[in-house]
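Q: What does the assembly look like in three dimensions?
Context provided by user:
Components: four
Sequences:
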Amino acid sequence: MNEGVEWALHSCLNLAWIGGERAVTAARLAAYHELPAAYLNKQLQALSRAGIVSSVSGPKGGFRLARPLDRITLMDVVTAIEGPEEAFRCTEIRRQGPGAAPAGPDAPRCAIAGAMGKAELAWRRALADQTLDDVRERAEAQAPGAPDRIRRWFAGM
Amino acid sequence: MNEGVEWALHSCLNLAWIGGERAVTAARLAAYHELPAAYLNKQLQALSRAGIVSSVSGPKGGFRLARPLDRITLMDVVTAIEGPEEAFRCTEIRRQGPGAAPAGPDAPRCAIAGAMGKAELAWRRALADQTLDDVRERAEAQAPGAPDRIRRWFAGM
DNA sequence: GCAGCACTACTCGGATATGAAGTGTCCGAGTACTAAAGG
DNA sequence: CCTTTAGTACTCGGACACTTCATATCCGAGTAGTGCTGC
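A: Here is the predicted structure of the complete assembly.
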C-alpha cells in the first residue's frame, strides 16, 4: 500500500487539531513530521480532487478540511490516494488457453474472484465504518496533550 | 496485489481436479492458461516453500498438493505469494519532526495504525475463513463440466 | 541372461535482465498583499 | 487623504527524473529413466 496514505491520514488529523479558520500550507504540514514537502503536496492534491480537503492558492493559501472529521471515513482517504480499483483484479485467465471455459458473455463470476472479492469487501466495509473522528477520539485518549502541542506549534511558527 | 496470487489459486484448484497420483509440471499448468511457464514456476516455488504444494525434480517430476483442499485457506496462498508483512505499514512519522511525541518506548500503538490494522484484520479473517475446497465447490456448481474437462486435457496430452 | 554403470533427458531452483509503478523534485499558473503614483 | 494600479512574493498544480519492486527470463543442480557394457 502507498505510503502516502499514512501521511494523508496524519495530515487530516493535524488539520482538524489546528482548526479550520486558517489554511495550512503543505510545507508546514510536511515540516511537522519531516516529510518531503513537494511529495506531501502531491498527496494533498489527491485529497483535494476527492473533495476531502479544499485548497487555496497564493499567499495565505494552503489546505483545510472540506468537511468535519466525522464525515470522513478511512475508506474515503484510502480511495483518494490509492485509487478506486480493487487490490485483487481478476484477469479471467480461465478464459485463456486450451481449457478456456466455453461459456458465453453471461457467464457467472469466477469463483476465485468472488471469494477474494468477499474478503476485500470486508476490508472496505471495516474502513468505511471508521471515521477520522473515531480515530481522533482514540488518539486524544492516548495522548491528551497532543492537540494543544500541535495547535501551538502551528500557531507559533 | 501480486498477479501471481490469481495464478497460484487457479493452479491449486487445477491440481486438485487432476488428482494427486501424478506430479504435474509447471509448464503444463502454465500452458493450460497460456501463462509464462518460468514465472508460474516461481510462484509454485513460493507455494512449495510454504508447504502448500510439494515439488519433485527430474523426469516425472512436478508439483502436487501437499494436503487436501479443505486444509488450504485463501490466507495461506496469499501469505505464501505476497509475504507475511502487512499492507499498511506504520512508519511512525508521529515520532519525527518538531512535533515528535515525547513518549518513551512503552508508548501505545499509533491510533491510525490501529484503525488501519483493524480493517486489515477483517480482511485476513475473511481470507482465513475460506478454504480452497469452498471455492472448488462453488466453481463446480457454476460449471459442472469443468473438472472432467481439465482432467481429460491433462491426461491426454 | 543379468547386474552394474555411464549417459541422456527432463524438471525444479535460484540468479539474472527488463519494465512499470511508486517516490521524489522542479517550474509555471494563479492569487493576495504591498506600495507607489495620481487625483 | 483616498483610489487605482503595477509589482512582488507566495502557494498550489501538474510536468519531469529517479528508485524500487513486480514481471519475465535463463542457466545450473539434481534425478529418473535408458541403453550399453561386462560378467
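Follow-up: The domain at 4-86+131-156 of chain B is CATH 1.10.10.10 (Arc Repressor Mutant, subunit A).
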